[in-house]
């Protein structure tokens, strides 16, 4: 059952950085749009739980996540070939609500995002991670271990 959610995903790409404010979410959004423009089926998983910016960047912040028999349905953005999105930003009452959770609760939600979202058939799932090298990164990589992890993009700045 755990493999079912990502069974139709061909490649997973992590987007990481050692610090905040370097443009990870912007790179994720632009990469997803470019891949979609190339005819690929794309999803973005936003595991930046304290700063979920993907919904706002793709103008989907007023959307809601729904349940189906196989788990949560990602929010679809775009008409012709939509980009599938999952973010804690869709689960908050107000988009600017703060998420102040300890590690175990964050890690459980990351695992739930990976195991319980019905992504369907995707060529690429892009994972937007929080800044730094925290428990969230370890939980994400551990939960993705059984799947096709294509690689990672490390976003840096010149300083």
TrEMBL record:
GO MF terms held by the record: 4 iron, 4 sulfur cluster binding; ATP binding; ATP-dependent FeS chaperone activity; metal ion binding
Keywords assigned: 4Fe-4S, ATP-binding, Iron, Iron-sulfur, Metal-binding, Nucleotide-binding
SUPFAM superfamilies documented for this protein: P-loop containing nucleoside triphosphate hydrolases
InterPro entries per record: Mrp-like_CS, Mrp/NBP35_ATP-bd, P-loop_NTPase, YlxH/NBP35
GO CC annotation terms, alphabetical: cytosol
GO annotation (BP), single: iron-sulfur cluster assembly
Domain of life: Eukaryota
Name under which the protein is recorded: NUBP2 factor
Gene that produces this protein: Nubp2
